[in-house]
Amino acid sequence: MRTLLEPRLVDPSAAEPGLVVDVRDERRALLFDLGEIGRLPPRVLLRVSHVFVTHTHMDHFAGFDHLLAVGLGRMPRLVLWGGPNFVDQVEHKLRAYTWNVVQRYEVALTIEAREVSPDGRGRCARFDSRTAFTRGDEAAFTLDDDVLHDEATFRVRARFVDHEMPVLAYALEEKARVRVAPDRLAALGVTTGPWLRELKHAVLTGAPDDLPIELRWRDRDGEHSMVRPLAELRPLVLDVVAGRRIGYVTDLRCTEANVEQLVRLLTDVDLLHIETVFLDEDRAHALRKNHLTAAQAGAIARRLRARALVPFHFSPRYEGRTGELVAEARDAWGGSAECEAEVKQLKPR
Ligand SMILES: [Zn+2]
Ligand SMILES: [Zn+2]
């Protein structure tokens, strides 16, 4: 069925990190990481409302400048999330440029930078183009469990994993979706129309049973309309299914502590994007670099009972051999007992 959130890797070859998610019906998008986003067309970048950065290694944050350059004078607001010291780092990025004419731009840009630390405390600050991006409006907050961002149709949760530095692993969760059973619609003698959106919204927001809903539709006999209370439509026409859950996990060591964080965040995830940087034959090197091998990534996906797997962030050393990385991850995910045992045996650091 049609989904609200449509994710795709920023780099179709999957070598570079980054995920862009279309929020359908809202003409807006979310970004996970700010790497080589230059390959995304400006019309996509201009829709970005929120960016969730895993950590500020260059391959995950150097694209900030590009997003800013595209958005200046055209984008009204941008919210950026990151880990410890992220607000300072956004400020440093902004202070590296000269802003003597920016206040003349027709569309002013407000950047809201928000950071969290592993203890669940966070702080935010605002940078406004009208004041040459001077830092202001600072505030502190505490996370509600692991929820970073929550709105009517989706939420974003995050937990820290270790990469010899704290890195955020993300879960993007669509809230419940309302599914319409066509045979029940037919039994009621109506067809679909814009009224369905109103009905879905009423169901999802827990509107009262007596809420009148006007059904308007058109068929070969012309226009029709009738008013029914929500209570009457609810059981006849709809059922509600859990929304899709999407994981974005990159830059971490294969440790039991990390896997436990991912289990809390992403068990039974529908679609898991996970780094597969090295082949398992290079696992000693992967450990030194604080990255996963493809087999480790696949074994983690298996432990999370991920329903679909998207490997990405391939080391350039495998140029021309990335098929091997994907195959190794998929084999481990598909159930090599050896890999599963390996992940179970991992010791906390
Ligand atoms: Zn990286
Ligand atoms: Zn990194």
TrEMBL record:
Metallo-beta-lactamase domain residues: 242-314
Lineage, highest ranks first: Bacteria, Pseudomonadati, Pseudomonadota, Betaproteobacteria, Burkholderiales
Entries under Gene3D superfamilies matching the protein: Ribonuclease Z/Hydroxyacylglutathione hydrolase-like (3.60.15.10)
Protein name in UniProt: Ribonuclease Z
InterPro entries documented for this protein: Metallo-B-lactamas, RibonucZ/Hydroxyglut_hydro
Species of provenance: Caldimonas brevitalea
Pfam families: Lactamase_B_2
Domain of life, per lineage: Bacteria
Molecular function in Gene Ontology: 3'-tRNA processing endoribonuclease activity
Annotated signal sequence range: none
